[in-house]
Design brief:
The chain has 451 residues and is an alpha/beta fold. It has 14 helices and 22 strands.
Amino acid sequence: MKIKFLGGAGTVTGSKTLVESNGVRILIDCGQFQGIKPLRELNWEPLPILPDTIDFVLLTHGHLDHCGWLPRLVNQGFKGKIYCTSPTAAITKLILLDSAKIQEEEAERANKEHFSKHDVAEPLYNVEQAEEVFPLFRVIKPDDEIVLDAEISARFFNAGHIIGACSIELKLENKTLVFSGDIGRDDDVLMYSPIKPNKADYIFLESTYGNRIHPDEDVKLLLETYVNNTFQIDGTVIIPSFAVERAQVIMYLLWQLKKEDRIPDIPYVIDTPMGISVLDIFINNRKWHKLSESDCIAMCKMFTMNSDYQETITTILDKQPKVVIAASGMITGGRVLSYLERYIGLPETTVILVGYQAEGTRGRKLLEGATELKIYGKYYPVLAKILEIEGLSAHGDQTDLLNWLSKLENKPKKVFLVHGENQPADELRIKIQEKYSFDCSVPLMGQEIEI
């Protein structure tokens, strides 16, 4: 059996792990690279194997760094089945259509304003190519056994993190391989705790926060303080947010604060069409999260929901204090860029970062104290307050990741740490070896192993 790490190795983006057994090829996730330019450029490179030789894609969840390369895979010849849960299928459709639309718009803008180094800027894929992915989806239920081949089966089980997210157990050649996907937190606001595996010969574990312990902070109190402090100086709060799960968590916390009369009566805006659509997925898939239908409906009534871009312009030009939740969470694209063009240079503005900021993203640069931000080829001075609430992360921290291994009834032959930058992955490796004495390693991008 061969395992090849095509993405999500030494980095938190572009997750792709290829499993080859007896002529059957299975790709675990098919993510898009984000962040620094050398990583983004990998999106344009062909896979080291022909996509039409891949038989199956098993999708852990619908975030762009796990599903965003599917249109390229299909466009280059993949015709197999894509297995995932029902919420993941719905979210992936939204994510891919939104990604394609943003890429089309940015390519058009780059050509119009001539800020691309290319003679003609092109999108990585367009809406039509994204839509070609959808007929290949095969929706499965958690814990059901899916027979992929005569002696190969898969089982999905809840990973927390976002709605529909699962870890995957793959049985083949009398071995059990477990792919964690992204692991959620044991005490998440909306998601249920991840299910821990009880048997595995080989484990492929994410390590995003492998060197971090989430602070024990009162996120509601922090949110309350930041909103009120900004309101007192007639400023606007901008919360760059991932449209899936994070936007809904922030909405829920703001709704709770408003019900308790702890934040002012000002406009609260959610400006991410995809985030608005995800609310319907939450309502239709209540067994996946802790919110009741009545809570979902009551929460939504508090917010102005911008779908049309003209509504975005109107909100941007409105000078009164307000709170805006807008995608994308790492400020790599989306409508949040339009808000920051106008507001990042105002000292009364507060930008609250509420999730992981990958290397090379605008969000990471702001966290590291950037004094200017490049948006659509222009530089804007950063005079706004840049704050962070770490306690809202949808990723488990080092403690959660170590706990995820705690129910194993056998000692795995090897644990591979993926989906993490090198230092967090290596620190988690040391912790796993100290706590469990498991053989543990951090694979390199492009590395192939035999088991």
